């Protein structure tokens, strides 16, 4: 008679964790490894052939990839600092003593983060329409000229940044607000007794105590911006003249429109490398020495 498998206190944890490990291997580990292999291959005539570093060499020589990389970094360097500064400003404002309707304001700022990416991108596309949009209609009422929000390279980038800031500023604000509420009020009271004004208290207490939260929001915003896809794809279609096409949008185009899976995989791994390097730099610049 065959021995039956019996759960014991030593084997039971591994049995219960087995489905998690299987799901991780199938849906996480395998795609990561397979994508790395694809990055050294080329898909031609229904088959993958090894080309080693050709995809990476092609990426360096690809002017459109360099343009999408420049677009992504432009959005990152302009939009992320503005978003974080606004989030910190409104978080401090929402944490002010005696402010009425705090709950209403907090919910109002956070609601955009709950809006579906596709839905809010379409709404901004309608609002910023050059001929029939509400924004240009209001500008004409004020006697100003219509702005080519989505048809001019500079204004298209600005429109994209405004949309992203509108959606994610409140999300970062709530995180910073939670950090502000963990700072002991006794520190502010002691600083006030010593004669420190509001700006001094903000500089010597709020910012240092909030540094880990600011770092966390900066890294999340950086990762989100480098992976930016939905907004440029729906709002501007990467135009005009590829002015708003991001690296993630270009990756999608190469992989799923042109079936260049090897080249798309190589772009994906370069993107992962950029995220890692920038996160490390932010840890060094903003994080504590330890």
Question: How would you describe what is shown here?
Answer:
- The chain is mainly alpha-helical and 290 residues long.
- It has twelve helices and two strands; from the N terminus they run H-E-E-H-H-H-H-H-H-H-H-H-H-H.
- It has one domain: MetI-like (MetI-like fold, Orthogonal Bundle), CATH 1.10.3720.10.
- Helix content is 72%, strand content 3%.
- The chain has a two-stranded antiparallel ribbon.
- The longest helix has 32 residues.
- The termini are far apart.
- The model has no long low-confidence stretch (mean pLDDT 87).
Blueprint of the fold:
Elements: H1 12-38, E1 41-44, E2 47-50, H2 54-61, H3 63-94, H4 102-114, H5 117-127, H6 134-141, H7 153-181, H8 185-193, H9 198-226, H10 230-236, H11 247-257, H12 261-286
Antiparallel strand pairs: 1-2
Helix pairs in contact: 1-12, 2-12, 3-7, 3-9, 4-7, 5-10, 7-9, 7-10, 9-12, 11-12
- Global structural class: mainly alpha
The helix tally amounts to: 12
Major sheet strand order: 1-2
CATH superfamily: MetI-like
Q: Could you tell me the radius of gyration in angstroms?
A: 24 Å
CATH class: Mainly Alpha
Looking at the structure, the CATH topology is MetI-like fold
The unreliable regions are none
Strand content bin: under 5%
Overall form: globular
For the secondary structure, the number of strands is 2
> What is the share of helical residues?
over 70%
Largest sheet: 2 strands, antiparallel
How many structural units, i.e. domains?
Answer: 1
Distance between the termini: 60 Å
The chain-level mean pLDDT equals 87
CATH structural architecture:
Orthogonal Bundle
């Amino acid at each position: 008679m065959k021995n039956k498998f019996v759960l014991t206190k030593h084997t039971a944890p591994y049995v219960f964790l087995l489905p998690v490990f299987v799901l991780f291997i199938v849906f996480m580990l395998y795609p990561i490894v397979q994508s790395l292999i694809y990055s050294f291959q080329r898909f031609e005539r229904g088959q993958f052939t090894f080309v080693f570093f050709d995809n990476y060499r092609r990426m360096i020589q690809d002017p459109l990839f360099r343009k999408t990389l420049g677009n992504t970094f432009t959005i990152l360097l302009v939009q992320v600092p503005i978003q974080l500064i606004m989030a910190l400003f409104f978080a401090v404002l929402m944490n002010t003593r005696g402010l009425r309707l705090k709950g209403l304001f907090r919910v109002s700022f956070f609601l955009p983060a709950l809006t579906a990416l596709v839905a809010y991108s379409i709404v901004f596309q309608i609002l910023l329409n050059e001929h029939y949009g509400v924004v240009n209609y209001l500008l004409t009422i004020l006697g100003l000229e219509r702005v080519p929000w989505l048809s001019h390279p500079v204004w298209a980038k600005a429109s994209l940044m405004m949309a992203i800031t509108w959606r994610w500023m409140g999300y970062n604000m709530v995180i910073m607000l939670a950090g502000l509420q963990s700072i002991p009020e006794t520190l502010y009271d002691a600083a006030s007794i010593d004669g420190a004004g509001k700006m001094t208290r903000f500089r010597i207490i709020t910012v240092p105590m909030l540094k880990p939260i600011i770092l966390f929001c900066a890294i999340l915003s950086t990762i989100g911006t480098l992976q930016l896809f939905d907004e440029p794809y729906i709002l501007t279609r990467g135009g005009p003249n590829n002015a708003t096409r991001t690296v993630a949008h270009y990756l999608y185009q190469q992989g799923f429109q042109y079936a260049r899976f090897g080249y798309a995989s190589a772009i994906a791994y370069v993107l992962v490398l950029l995220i890692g390097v920038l996160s490390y730099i932010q840890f060094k610049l903003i994080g504590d020495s330890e």
